[in-house]
């Protein structure tokens, strides 16, 4: 922006004509937006002075333009100019006092500060602007409330974005602290609220002593105040801080809760509301800290929601009138003048009840209650209050109950603790209470909407949840759906919108009711009436309603068809409705509204698929004609093709002759999209082609070969792996084309697919299916295709082998291309499967065996052998391989190969082969244990891996109970007689038995693990197997039930005399806590004392080892102790309410001077547990200080190596970090610890505390 142009525009700002001033300001704004050139100091001063003066203009629109200009110009000004401008505005505000024009100045100030906070990268510039604002606020007695609020908002932006810079100015930060602590008691509630928020920002965002002092002052004032108004103010400040940074006040929360919980019910209204807000905030942001008081907090909320001293409710819930007759049918008018509701202008108890409801909602969401407890405790309280007379409170009550239902919806169908059953029993009361509330307050449409939202959530947990109540809900449903779109000239736009929302909520409930597999008798009766309301609303002229009605109709069609074979499956009464819905859908299939058109087309496709043989032939033919003749853009055609696919894809109720009659029209729509570059368009066309191909060559007509070539072209255009939809469509179409056509495209298609068979993991399943069909339909091409696949795999393996040699390692540096081998093997097997089908032959391993080379050495031979072995493994897993002693011998030979890749593939193939023939397991196990009973030697390990593969298949996959018994006996007999460590592969095999048949093998495994019989190695073997069961993330609920009863016996090994057994027992406990904390919760009381004993150093396990002239301290108990501390950390994180707080703190004291690995775990324990155990740590500050001093006093050796220096440095950093973490506890301790504070000051002095 040129100086000349700027001067000219600024001069026009003084023009007497307001329009010219406005135009000039607008031009300046455009100019400022269009430049990034910085203004010189003089230009900036001139520009801002003129704009600040314009804030006092007599015309508001000119003032607004001036504000926008000031906000835009900040990024073009020098810092000094910014400071002068802000000072000038603040001076103007101070001089004008309560003058009305001050509002424009304060808003301009707020706009500038807000823009500076976002646009200026250097926060020190923003921090330097605080002084003039503080000066104005200190003399604020003459300022209007809205002006002060603007200034506080500006100060909030400064503190939030430049807190560190403000803290650096000692005088300024002290003034801000003093100002905020004084103004939070302002008599104006608007100012007070804003000041409270700013004080919270100050404590959270300004580091250092002053924010700590501010927090301490707030808390001290709270603890000593005698006025209720002061208490409310101070507590609201703490609430603000908690919401922004919960850790800042974590140490104070237990004191506040303990002090206030008992006084809540007897407090005055304002105090009670504040305390409920405090508890709600603590529950939401610091649930773990208040977990021990959850029931007391819930009781306070329950008392609050019942608090209504000015009104007498009828508390006989059992006598609720659940009928919905009478007024309800026609009360959809304006909500104004609801004269049936109690009205008392002097009644202000409603906000107590509202706060109580919000607290209950927070308790429902915070996780302190199990789902069944949420329903039985919190849900029951809320249902009781559906009768609330105040609209705003009643809405919050019903909304809170929706949250309760959501907690179960999030759990899915397996709600823990029988929560779904509890909700099922409670549902009739919920419906009765909701209907009673609606009848009492019939003009409250919000109550109706929320009631339907709750009903929908109940149904989403269990589709039959409302079956017993549907008859009572039905009148309300019909009255809502029957309401007219308009009610004459007196109908307001807002009332129409409310009614529309209610209809959408009702239709959403109907849609939820249809989302089940079968229809109950009650639901059938319900829909026999409700269907007419759906029909009426598809003709609605109101936005979204017709689409929602068609969606509900679609769900109902699916539900009815699914129930056609059940006891309540006579759906004849719904056929006329379905035909009428079809006639309504035809003209709307080309609707302008995209959402409506999509819903209509979805309905048509579903209706044809489910009712194609029930509705009259003329109706279905008209619907098909609508689909196959619809025109429009490519996106419209995609929607239509989606409906076509839904209608004709098998299985469908449409007769074959009707599909064939419209096949040509459908292909005419789909075929042009095959050549489009749009992936969405081509996919829609491919799905349509695939669906039509299911009807054979008759459906494709003369276009079959053209379609094949188009699909191959799509595959050729794909930049990466072939599109799955294209492969599926090609597999569907191939049987309908000639051999000559396939021969013509075979070379091009193979060129595109050969690489994908090795590298295309995403499309592997689709390729396999295509290859099976190709093998079955065109066996002459199989040999050439297999050769190309083999060649591609050999090239991939050769590249891997070369990289390994270049890296100097055969396997460590490079990753074996297992996914490529996987795809290639599956493709080979698919072709073979198709070939044998075409020749009507049994599956043979001859070809795959021919791939394997005896003692392979060259890369090509190793690649072929691996491919043959992997393919044989898949064939065996699929049950395709007959018993062949020669094949078994060949596999066993390769298990002994010197090449890791061959050996691993052979072990997997042998295991799967034996898995398909369980009678061979005994011989396999005998050979494996003879070769590597202790897991020694590569061949022995591979044989044991083959055993594991066989167990996984026989026991894990096939659940062969008859074979499992002898196999278990064979493995355990070997283990009992073992004289050394037993391979982990066998331990994992035993775990498979327990996971497959938990009722039998979990107790057996636990008994072996807990038994004192056998050697240490044997006991370690069984504990390892038990831990493998605990670590499995896919285990079934019945397995958990058995583990729950067996866990305590196994975890008794924590107290074993052998340190290795103790370590394994501790790891089992850690695995339990990590995976399923609820399993550990029942035993932690019994094993807890032993666990915490294991956090102490066992001096009997410490020994000195001579290393030449040096001696080294070796602690054989370190690994077990580390496992113990891992358990403690997992406990305080996953089960904080179950741990012994004193024991945790004592273990922290013990662990601080321990080894570096232990110290890191201790730091994690402190960070996790400090909010909950602050008081416990406060009582041990001296002991903690002694432990930290001992850790810091550790000396380096005389001539340390680099690792020792790094470890020592890390130790010092860790102790300093511990000091910082425990700092809040030290500052809030009732009795300060001189030792700990001295350590803190020392760390702060050398800068390490930062």
TrEMBL record:
Region of interest (Disordered), residue spans: 315-347
InterPro entries named among the record's database cross-references: ARM-like (IPR011989), ARM-type_fold (IPR016024), CAND1/CAND2 (IPR039852), TATA-bd_TIP120 (IPR013932)
Family: Belongs to the CAND family.
The protein's name: Cullin-associated NEDD8-dissociated protein 2
Domain (TATA-binding protein interacting (TIP20)): residue spans on this chain: 1084-1241
Source domain of life: Eukaryota
Transcription as UniProt keyword: no
Keywords per UniProt: Repeat, Ubl conjugation pathway
One Pfam family linked to the record: TIP120
GO BP, one annotated term: SCF complex assembly
Residue ranges of coiled coil: none
UniProt keyword Repeat present: yes
